[in-house]
């Protein structure tokens, strides 16, 4: 697919506060893991553009390549990863940076919030110290100024009683509060792009909504862009401007959220959508979207990777993989026999 076309679509849909130049351009990103005689094709040609002030949701089942594709941008993959393609941040190619150069940008330009604050925060350090360290890692502030900046960040993420919490340990905070602290740490160096990888998945539904509201508010206030990674299409529908649905390391549908949810084309997206009201699911249950398993990433089939699970599959689907193409203005999908508006299963 052509990145220029995606860009035009994104630019056309960009809100007024978004710049004309994309903040991040990802083009034909591929990631393979090699080792022990195996080759895992984790990301198989992912392209998108993201503008300042926009929230892009990357949605897909477990193992679809959401985290790997984002960690590749941050230089956070192990040496067994072979990465190709391009990821330009404000025009700078991220995939060629040395570890030393990447360390300068990580946190300062692009920051990440992970699913599990219990693992990301140091349990033996008071939260205030962890935030001040993050502040000082990217600036030459003295202790006093770093303390003030840390308090400012805790207020920004609306941590209740920040003065008191500053001196507490992570285990003394609730899950939602820990996630707020993680967001404060991520914001320490005022990044232009925040990647939230399942950042609300471990939280109850009410806290999840509060954290998403907070991210949206911070995004508008600070003008940054957010990539929100989730397996929850409902969450994307509520908060994201644009949505990419991934399957087996590929983008299979991409559109502004309002278009995607009113004119769904990919049978896989439809299955994800169908799962939302149908399941009185546990808030964070992984979606059993449709029977069957995603394909083995060490041996991808020649045809459409969704074919064994697809209710619309026809004979030609297994022969050649459909290209990811802009079939309608701003709306991309990869399917030989797409769903039509108003169609029911
Ligand atoms: N270090 C690694 N070595 C080999 N394979 C890996 C490695 N890291 C990830 N993978 C594989 O890459 C594929 C994509 O993984 P990824 O973590 O991106 O999935 P995901 O979409 O984020 O899933 P989840 O929703 O469970 O977080 C998976 O098949 C995974 O097993
Ligand atoms: S190409 Fe065929 S198998 Fe693949 S999603 Fe479309 S209809 Fe289903
Ligand atoms: Mg993941």
TrEMBL record:
<dbReference type="Pfam" id="PF08352">
    <property type="entry name" value="oligo_HPY"/>
</dbReference>
<dbReference type="GO" id="GO:0005524">
    <property type="term" value="F:ATP binding"/>
</dbReference>
<dbReference type="GO" id="GO:0016887">
    <property type="term" value="F:ATP hydrolysis activity"/>
</dbReference>
<keyword id="KW-0067">ATP-binding</keyword>
<dbReference type="GO" id="GO:0005886">
    <property type="term" value="C:plasma membrane"/>
</dbReference>
<dbReference type="InterPro" id="IPR050388">
    <property type="entry name" value="ABC_Ni/Peptide_Import"/>
</dbReference>
<protein>
    <submittedName>
        <fullName>Oligopeptide/dipeptide ABC transporter, ATP-binding protein</fullName>
    </submittedName>
</protein>
<keyword id="KW-1003">Cell membrane</keyword>
<dbReference type="InterPro" id="IPR003439">
    <property type="entry name" value="ABC_transporter-like_ATP-bd"/>
</dbReference>
<dbReference type="InterPro" id="IPR013563">
    <property type="entry name" value="Oligopep_ABC_C"/>
</dbReference>
<dbReference type="Pfam" id="PF00005">
    <property type="entry name" value="ABC_tran"/>
</dbReference>
<dbReference type="InterPro" id="IPR003593">
    <property type="entry name" value="AAA+_ATPase"/>
</dbReference>
<feature type="domain" description="ABC transporter">
    <location>
        <begin position="24"/>
        <end position="273"/>
    </location>
</feature>
<dbReference type="GO" id="GO:0015833">
    <property type="term" value="P:peptide transport"/>
</dbReference>
<dbReference type="InterPro" id="IPR017871">
    <property type="entry name" value="ABC_transporter-like_CS"/>
</dbReference>
<keyword id="KW-0472">Membrane</keyword>
<keyword id="KW-0547">Nucleotide-binding</keyword>
<comment type="similarity">
    <text>Belongs to the ABC transporter superfamily.</text>
</comment>
<dbReference type="InterPro" id="IPR027417">
    <property type="entry name" value="P-loop_NTPase"/>
</dbReference>
<keyword id="KW-0813">Transport</keyword>
């Amino acid at each position: 697919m052509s990145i220029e076309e995606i860009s035009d679509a994104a630019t056309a849909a960009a809100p007024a506060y978004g710049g004309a130049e994309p903040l991040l351009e990802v083009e034909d990103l591929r990631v393979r893991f090699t080792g022990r005689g195996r080759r895992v094709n984790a990301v198989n040609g992912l392209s998108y553009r993201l503008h300042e002030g926009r929230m892009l949701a990357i949605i897909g089942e477990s193992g679809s390549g959401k985290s790997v594709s984002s960690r590749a941008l941050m230089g956070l993959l192990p040496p067994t990863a072979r990465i190709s393609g391009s990821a330009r941040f404000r025009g700078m190619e991220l995939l060629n940076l040395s570890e030393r150069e990447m360390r300068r940008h990580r946190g300062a330009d692009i920051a990440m919030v992970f699913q599990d604050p219990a693992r990301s925060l140091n349990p033996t350090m008071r939260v205030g110290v962890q935030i001040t360290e993050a502040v000082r890692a990217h600036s030459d502030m003295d202790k006093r100024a770093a303390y003030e900046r840390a308090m400012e960040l805790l207020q920004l993420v609306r941590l209740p009683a920040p003065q008191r919490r500053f001196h507490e340990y992570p285990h003394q905070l609730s899950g939602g509060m820990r996630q707020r602290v993680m967001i404060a740490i991520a914001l320490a160096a005022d990044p232009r792009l925040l990647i939230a990888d399942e950042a609300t998945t471990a939280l109850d539904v009410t806290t999840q909504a509060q954290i998403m509201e907070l991210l949206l508010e911070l995004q508008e206030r600070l003008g940054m862009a957010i990539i929100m990674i989730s397996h929850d299409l409902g969450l994307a529908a509520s908060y994201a401007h644009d949505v990419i649905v991934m399957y087996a390391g590929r983008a299979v549908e991409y559109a502004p959220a309002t278009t995607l949810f009113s004119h769904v084309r990919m049978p896989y997206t439809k299955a994800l959508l169908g799962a939302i009201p149908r399941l009185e699911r546990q808030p964070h249950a992984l979606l059993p979207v449709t029977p069957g398993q995603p394909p083995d990433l060490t041996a991808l089939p020649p045809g459409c990777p969704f074919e064994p699970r697809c209710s619309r599959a026809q004979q030609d689907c297994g022969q050649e993989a459909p290209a990811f193409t802009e079939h309608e203005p701003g709306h991309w999908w990869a399917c030989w026999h797409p769903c039509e508006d108003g169609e029911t299963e």
